Amino acid sequence: MGKPSKKFWDQRSRKLNKKQRKKKKRIKYRTKRKKKNESLRREPDVVFELPENFSFITNLGETASFVEKTMNRFKHSIPKTLFLFDAQNVKKTTTDAIMYLIALMRNYKETKIKKYSFCGNYPNNENAKNVFLESGFLKFVKSTTHKLPENTSKMEILSGKNTDVSSAGKMCSFVANKLNLKRVSVNKLYEVIIEMMSNVYYHAYNDSETNMVPEWYMYAEHKEGKVKFLFLDTGLGIGNTVQKHSLYEKVANRIGASSESRFIMSALNGEFRTQTQKTNRGKGLPFIKEFASLDNIDEFNIISGKGHCIISDSGSIKIDDLQNNVFGTIYSFWINKEE
Amino acid sequence: MKITVLNDFSKTPGGRLIKEGAFSGEEFLKKVLLPKYQDAVSKNEKLEIDFDGTFGYSPSFLDESFGGLVRKTKEKGVLNNIIIESKDDFTLERRIKECVQEAEKSIEGGKDDE
Hints:
The structure holds two protein chains of two kinds. By secondary structure, chain A is of the alpha/beta class.
């Protein structure tokens, strides 16, 4: 066999050059992308450090205080502010607070107008981090964290703006399945969910007074033989939206002298208080109270504005005013298997 | 004349008004309850409504449909022409009666709640 011809070397040279040109092009493109990403990854303008125990259920005061400070900061920040939610030091958390965090990022009205942006990090504590990941938090944020395999004892956070019968049905089927109940046994739960969704649509929205776009969030978790249920709406809060009876109450409410817990309690007790001033309305909250008084419903909590009510099995209501304002309304309760 | 909410309307009844979401009380009233009620009354029959098999009925749904029936027809005693069948929920008949009674009071008082 003779030496390779000039033609062979020329062809080989052309092939190698082509490969090298493609390689250079790839490197150039990657460098360009990296520089672009670096310019986007700027330092946050405002940092919110989440409390170590980030939970309305187990740490109501501190969590409510955090939420109110956050909202106040939103109101007074300049356009294009980048906010960081620093969760690194969170050791304990529950999904009610995580739902509220999602709502703060998604529903604050001026976010789009003022072009706010948000970033954050997960807790260093593995258990607390898993609560974030298994709640369905990743559905609402862009994250490089890999999704965990589905935890079938948890129904990931659902959200919506209208009365969504499909989500209500899904939630009830989950509860019936986990507690091994017939579907008809969760009818009351379905009816209450529909009523809560309706409240978001009709009563929680007053254009001039609320800072949040009204939306509902819902979550359930099967634990220790019972189901924990959470519902959050980002409206005005019950105390602000229910109708005041007398001029005194109107004035007292304006100057902040009234007890929001008492307003919630009176609405739950069915005293005629409805913003729409129609005689056939105002039944939603008394219906919720009736549901809360069922034997298989425990620890029914309502947190709304500065009000906090706990409804017992007997139907009695314990009230507890908060120092800080929680925008919107949070319902939380346990569902047991009926005996 | 008989209707079943499950087959003639929906397994998942919704809230009060059509604009709020699917399968509302308003939709049920307009598409099913009112036409069937008027049809039954014109034929001198009672309207039998089977409520079983669905996920349930919120107070807003019942009020807008049955209270709405009274407010639309401006008649008292609509329940004399309706038979309520509900084995799933024994409180349903009482709840419907309450909605109807309240609506009857409002038409009596001349208030228009719509």
